[in-house]
Hints:
Elements: E1 2-3, H1 10-19, E2 24-27, E3 30-32, H2 38-45, H3 48-54, H4 59-72, H5 79-92, E4 95-96, H6 102-112, E5 117-123, H7 128-138, H8 140-144, E6 148-154, H9 164-184, H10 199-209, H11 215-228, H12 234-241, H13 247-257, H14 280-290
Parallel strand pairs: 1-4, 5-6
Antiparallel strand pairs: 2-3
Helix pairs in contact: 1-4, 6-7, 9-10, 9-11, 9-12, 10-13, 10-14
Amino acid sequence: CLTGGYGRLNVPLIQKALDNNFSIQIAPDTTLTSLHDEIFQKWIMANTDFAKNTIKVSEAEIIQQILLQMIDQNSSISATERAALRDNFLKKLTLEKSSTNTFENFFYLRELVNLSGDSIIVQTPLQELRAWATARRVFAAEIQQKNINLWRFTTPLSIRTAEKTWLINTVIAEMWRLIIYTGKGDLLLEFADATIIPSFYWESVRYLFTHAGEQEKIRAQLQNLARAAGFSDKAILYQRLGDNISTGISEFIEWVFQARDDGGIKHPPSERQPAITPRADSVRAAESIRTSL
């Protein structure tokens, strides 16, 4: 089953496909073959609504097109074998095209396909933890009854070659999603208990903040994510998270919801400028990012 409707990754997915010499049909009368196509350049320059109004295919359909082209381009097998492989692939394939986020990916997948036995979740390194935690939430009953074994697999990502600003902003936003989606109830994490987010996550994010050039822009992005998840007020988020948060996570929440002229972290009154002794795993996590910058 390929799952994915229209979401924030449609344009980046198409961009990656074009960059790897795949053509993508985005509408019945429109096929893109190059990053230099006029319509793609308009996506880059225009707002999200323009792209959404011109892309008439889901993420699942985009991935399907890529996989079919990979079969067609496989020169190690004969044309007859390629045709048979293609037909078999299409017969067994189920497309889920309605989801708009990770939770819906797995929720609608559960409605469409009766999963049992071993199932593999493939995601990029930066989103892999959240995808895994979301799957564990959606398939919690099947896992408890031992009807399904979930495995996770990630794809290569070289942080040394990644664009610095993109990497920092993406990691910070992903950490924030772990917080708000845990509060929303979409995630089932595997730390000290079902919902806790360890402090070393925040310690690594704090380091990244010192290298972020547009902190107010990042803050606005995180505020928009919180509102979209139903947390227009930080009190609601605190209530949903309960007691299973560290001082560092509280600092993160305070920084997002409370504007400061200097763009700094707003510490809770009782925790003003706390001294932090990073754990060994925190040092390793942060160091892997430091060495790439």
